From TrEMBL:
Its cofactor is Mn(2+); Mg(2+). One of its GO terms (molecular function) is RNA-DNA hybrid ribonuclease activity. Its EC number is 3.1.26.4. This is Ribonuclease HII. Its main location: cytoplasm. The keyword Nuclease applies. Manganese or magnesium. Binds 1 divalent metal ion per monomer in the absence of substrate. May bind a second metal ion after substrate binding. The lineage of its organism: Bacteria, Pseudomonadati, Bacteroidota, Flavobacteriia, Flavobacteriales. It comes from Polaribacter vadi. Belongs to the RNase HII family. PROSITE patterns: RNASE_H_2. The gene is rnhB.
């Protein structure tokens, strides 16, 4: 059973990101403030949910949240500032979009930078403990997946519609055969060393 709040504040924002471990595309972050009485029988860490379930949850979260924000950190910026900083920057930008200023912020993971003067707490596996972080994980994942489906149309040979940019065997085979695209992160090891072609 997920908990509603970590702090005693009623305006507590949960934040999470998706796409950190991908070889291409953006890191997408979301922040959500839920009402105290928010409940949904299926809401959990987005990784525990089927794609269909996440798609059902997204409009429910958006309609019932007190506020939510979603931000995209594009691959060029990920390359420039590194993926950890991209995740934190993305969460900050998602919080910037909230139409209500949170009184407290809870973050999935163990790294964060101070956001203004607002107190915060990092929570490892927070997306399977707190409703607002779980809701943020669902928004981040669905917005990112939707974008990866869109760019898949342009570059079907990597099958991003299925792997969403994660380093699957199929994705790496696509890189080996067709090379990297404008969507790939240049600072990421796109192919393991042992798979480099001998020239």
């Amino acid at each position: 059973m997920l908990l509603s709040n970590y702090s005693d504040f009623s305006l507590e924002a949960g934040t999470d990101e998706a796409g950190r471990g991908c070889l291409c595309g953006p890191v997408v972050a979301a922040a959500v403030i839920l009402p105290k009485d928010f409940t949904h029988p299926f809401l959990n860490d987005s990784k525990q949910l089927s794609e269909k379930r996440r798609e059902e949850l997204r409009p429910f979260i958006e309609e019932n949240a007190l506020a939510f924000g979603v931000s995209f950190i594009w691959q060029e910026e990920v390359d420039k500032i590194n993926v950890l900083q991209a995740s934190i920057t993305g969460m900050h930008r998602a919080i910037d979009q909230l139409k209500i200023t949170p009184e407290f912020i809870i973050i999935d993971g163990n790294k964060f930078r101070d956001y203004k003067e607002i107190p915060h707490k990092t929570i490892v596996k927070g997306d399977s403990k707190y409703l607002s972080i779980a809701a943020a994980s669902v928004l981040a994942k669905t917005y990112r997946d939707e974008y990866m489906d869109k760019i898949h149309q342009e570059f079907p040979m990597y099958n991003w519609a299925k792997n969403k940019g994660y380093p699957t065997k199929e994705h790496r085979n696509g890189i080996r055969e067709f090379g990297a695209t404008i969507h790939h992160r240049k600072t990421f090891k796109l192919l393991p060393e042992q798979l480099k072609l001998k020239i």
